[in-house]
């Protein structure tokens, strides 16, 4: 019985030992396979890096690091990619990790010293570079970087003095030079942004502040400043985008949230005015632009867009006085040629030809060859010449922007008032006949789309000398009325054509 148990145990032990042996072989195979995969990732990553495919290279180096967190070369190669794409912070993290794993890796220490120099961390850079030049005195690159540190420190102190004394131009010149060596120091870019603002160069300041937000994390102050500067430039949509970036980091930010509420309204009204203008909805355009002015009482960059829309839309709606005022307000902010043309068109609506010509010429002075201004001058001159002849709008007492319905209404009223048969005195009758013929002619021209277009361009289509057909309106078109036994206004058997459409 004992012999049977011993034999049974021996078989079980043998099976266990065989299992352990197989498991050990499996582990060895897996380890070999994993190392092979790591080597493959590293090789593929280097190939991608050589071709500039940085994103793909990073993916392979990430996989190599994850597979073996103790392999310092995986970190080193990944740090090289991070530096190539200007991602200084993750590059520094990897270099720190390398020197933890292998403190005597001199290439990594030199790399870190150069990176710290570019980040403006000059004291730390000095320590690393001093370590490198001590151990590699022949390393010319490290020697140059090492000797540069103290010089850069002195230059930065000089720059701060320039800015404290509001001496912005030399500060910017020095910063331009220093940033060639220290491109990833956000504090230097902030200094240059302040200097640009001191000189009134908001666009360049925005560029530097945007770089600062990329070089730092959770920079709500940077996004708020960007939003404010864009808003001052009148760039409401860009301002809203930046303030949203601030609120992603801090939804209750004490500065960003109040500005966000205001921006939403202003952007909405500006966009509404723009869309209404594109749809020729002049009333909605005017109403939305006026809401912009109400919500923004002081920032000229934003108010300019409102005045601009009011200038155009009031003019198209026939509100010439309001249009001229809005155009003038816009011109005070931005001296743009098209605004002079819009104001000139408003002057033409009031038959102020000299003023219109002055504005069209002012537009040409600001933009030589401006087609709209050239055409406007020709039109104004024709209209001015035409003013000595019949003015069909004045004859009917309507505006140049009047609709066909309004013109017909005015015509009917005047035709009844000046019908010659209403006048018994021969002299009065002759005056009435002339008046009546002018009224009919005005109606004929202004209710025909093609004839009205020609007239608005300074050509009288009923004037043979002016290139028109020369036909009198009583000779064509319209309805002919006969009054047997006289007409209802009394007098002789006059026969006229009334043009009631």
Protein architecture, described:
- This protein has helices at 2-50, 54-67, 72-84, 88-101, 106-118, 122-135, 140-164, 168-181, 186-198, 202-215, 220-232, 236-249, 256-278, 282-295, 300-316, 320-333, 337-349, 353-366, 371-386, 392-396, 404-417, 426-446, 449-456; strands spanning 479-481, 496-498.
- With 501 residues, the protein is mostly helical.
- The longest helix has 49 residues, at 2-50.
- The radius of gyration is 42 Å and the shape is elongated.
- The protein starts with a helix and ends with a strand.
Q: How many runs of DSSP E, i.e. beta strands?
A: 2
**Rg estimate, integer Å:** 42 Å
| Strand order across the largest sheet | 1-2
Q: Count every helix, treating DSSP H or I runs of 4 or more residues as helices.
A: 23
Element string (H = helix, E = strand): HHHHHHHHHHHHHHHHHHHHHHHEE
The pLDDT mean sits at 86
What is the makeup of the main sheet? 2 strands, antiparallel
Give the SSE map.
Blueprint (H helix, E strand, L loop, with lengths): L1 H49 L3 H14 L4 H13 L3 H14 L4 H13 L3 H14 L4 H25 L3 H14 L4 H13 L3 H14 L4 H13 L3 H14 L6 H23 L3 H14 L4 H17 L3 H14 L3 H13 L3 H14 L4 H16 L5 H5 L7 H14 L8 H21 L2 H8 L22 E3 L14 E3 L3
Antiparallel strand pairs: 1-2
Helix pairs in contact: 1-2, 2-3, 3-4, 4-5, 5-6, 6-7, 7-8, 8-9, 9-10, 10-11, 11-12, 12-13, 13-14, 13-15, 14-15, 15-16, 15-17, 16-17, 17-18, 17-19, 18-19, 21-22
């Amino acid at each position: 019985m004992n012999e049977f148990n011993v034999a049974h145990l021996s078989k079980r032990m043998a099976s266990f030992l065989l299992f352990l042996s197989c498991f050990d072989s499996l582990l060895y195979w897996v380890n070999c396979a994993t190392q092979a995969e790591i080597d493959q990732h590293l090789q593929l990553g280097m190939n991608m890096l050589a071709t500039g495919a940085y994103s793909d290279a990073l993916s392979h180096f990430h996989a190599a690091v994850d597979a073996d967190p103790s392999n310092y070369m995986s970190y080193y190669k990944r740090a090289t990619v991070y530096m190539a794409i200007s991602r200084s912070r993750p590059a520094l993290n990897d270099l720190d990790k390398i020197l933890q794993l292998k403190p005597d890796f001199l290439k990594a220490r030199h790399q870190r010293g150069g990176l710290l120099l570019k980040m403006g961390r000059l004291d730390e850079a000095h320590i690393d570079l001093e370590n490198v030049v001590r151990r590699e005195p022949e390393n010319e690159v490290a020697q140059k970087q090492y000797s540069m540190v103290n010089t850069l420190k002195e230059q930065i102190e000089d720059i701060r003095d320039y800015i404290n004394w509001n001496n912005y131009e030399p500060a910017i010149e020095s910063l331009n030079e220093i940033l060639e060596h220290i491109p990833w120091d956000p504090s230097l870019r902030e200094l240059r942004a302040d200097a640009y603002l001191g000189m009134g160069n908001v666009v360049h300041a925005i560029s530097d502040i945007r770089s600062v937000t990329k070089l730092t994390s959770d920079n709500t102050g940077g996004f708020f400043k960007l939003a404010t500067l864009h808003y001052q430039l009148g760039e409401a949509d860009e301002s809203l985008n930046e303030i949203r970036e601030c609120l992603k980091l801090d939804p209750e930010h004490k500065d960003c949230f109040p500005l966000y509420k205001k921006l939403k309204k202003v952007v909405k009204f500006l966009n509404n005015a723009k869309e209404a203008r594109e749809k020729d909805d002049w009333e909605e355009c005017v109403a939305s632009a006026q809401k912009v002015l109400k919500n923004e009482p002081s920032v000229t960059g934003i108010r300019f867009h409102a005045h601009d829309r009011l200038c155009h839309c009031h003019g198209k709606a026939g509100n010439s006085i309001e249009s001229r005022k809005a155009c003038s307000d816009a011109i005070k902010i931005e001296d743009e040629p098209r605004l002079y043309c819009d104001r000139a068109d408003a002057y033409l609506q009031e038959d102020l030809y000299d003023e219109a010509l002055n504005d069209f010429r002012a537009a040409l002075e600001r933009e030589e060859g401006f087609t709209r201004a050239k055409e406007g001058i020709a039109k104004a001159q024709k209209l001015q010449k035409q003013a000595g002849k019949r003015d069909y709008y004045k004859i009917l007492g309507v505006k140049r922007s009047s609709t066909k319905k309004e013109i017909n209404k005015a015509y009917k009223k005047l035709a009844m008032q000046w019908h010659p048969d209403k006048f018994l005195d021969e002299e009065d009758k002759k005056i009435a006949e002339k008046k009546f013929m002018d009224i009919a002619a005005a109606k004929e021209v202004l209710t025909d789309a093609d004839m009205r277009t020609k007239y608005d361009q300074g050509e009288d289509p009923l004037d043979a000398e002016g290139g028109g057909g020369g036909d009198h309106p009583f000779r064509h078109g319209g309805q002919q009325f006969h009054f047997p036994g006289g007409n209802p206004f009394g007098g002789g058997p006059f026969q006229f054509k009334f043009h009631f459409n």
